[in-house]
Amino acid sequence: MVMGRQISGLFSAYKLEILLVVFVWLVIGLTINSRNLDAFNLQQMGVEAIVERGVFYVDGSKAPNLQPIGDAFDYQGHKYAAKQPGQFLIGAFFYFFLHLLGLNYVSDYLLTSALVTFFSASLIAGISTVAIYHTARLLSKDGASNFLPLIAAFLYVFGTTALPYAGIAHHDSIATSYLAIAFYFAVRYGRMKPGDGGGNLLSVLIGLFLGLVVTTSMLVFWPALAVGLYFVSVRRWGNIPFFLLGGTIGILPLLVYDAVNFGNPFLLPNVAGNYSDTFFHFTVSNFVDKAGFYLKATIGYAPIILIGLGALWLIPRALLREKLAVVLAVILLCGYIFNIDSVGTCEYGPRYLLPLMGLGCLGIVGFGYLESRYMQFLSIGAVLIIGLIGVVLNFVGAIGGAMYCDLGTHAFMPHWKMIMKGEQGTFPLFRWLLIPAIMMGFFLITNLWRQHRGESELASQPIPD
What we know:
mainly alpha, 66% helix, two-stranded antiparallel ribbon
């Protein structure tokens, strides 16, 4: 009885957050499709190897769909994925239980890989949506409604290229979610007032999720570094050991993986495989070409983050540290991806900009600081229109698949034509998730409406003398 009351109280306290996570999770699950599951099968190879064979190398599977071809290299007689191991480890955790239930990649590859994806990348994307929502609230004007933070959260997960990759057990997507969660804890830590408790726990959580970022994707390391510098800039030196403890726990799986497989805890997979197209080097021509490519791709697939980044400057100076953290994340990531040869090969939208999708949308709350109600109305209207365009673009990408190789041509029309012809593949979880997703959407809208009515009634009450 006591536990039941505690669970009921917890649900009541975090009802919106729970509904938001589950709704986003289910919607992403609806988009998980066979085209992505077949094209991104490397993401499942490491999962199968760990759970079924107790190894890290990806060759030797009995499943026909899990035979390594691309993004795998030979090392001392075996093939290894040229990826950080984080995506395999979180997938293996859930596959362990699915495998106990009788599911496996040989008998039903699509259902098994869809469920592994659903319980790993898709779930963590849903959680990161709540992290973006709460971070946006921390950056909002005191007493403001949660409308703009919710818009920022929804446009992050549905209106940017975060969506096409949330239905793939993809290292960059998972690490981007970890980054959003780490930044939420960091901003909450940075906004703490003297005497507030929980600093040690927040420090551990910040370090943990930043460590998990590095374990999962070196691409996302660069904006993660900005978040780490933000934490240090708060200058609460007594919390540093707790931050380092969390970071050590988060990065330990990577160190063990590298030591076991390559004999050196600091020898990363892409270095061991000599994937030089991801190595930093500066030339003016490459820098200019990459800058132009990413600007065009951002406008073409996720224009809302440019609006959000621009609106950061509307947020007042009291939040300068938080704004600078976002700007530094942009600078560090662009400083890396503008100076390597690769742009992510085949992709729907600018995959290497994934880490900025959530951070970029945070600036939307800046429009809430405009003094003119007329300018607020116009600005938010523009955000909704541009955001809706992004939603359409990226839902088509999620349904049609992220493996698109003709980067000289925008992917939307080819994907749209493919979908109209019914060639988009199958959706293994669709029939199981459609009704729950509709129900959860109804509950979420109802909850938001009740909150809005409660805020309106409270605002209409006369102020006592």
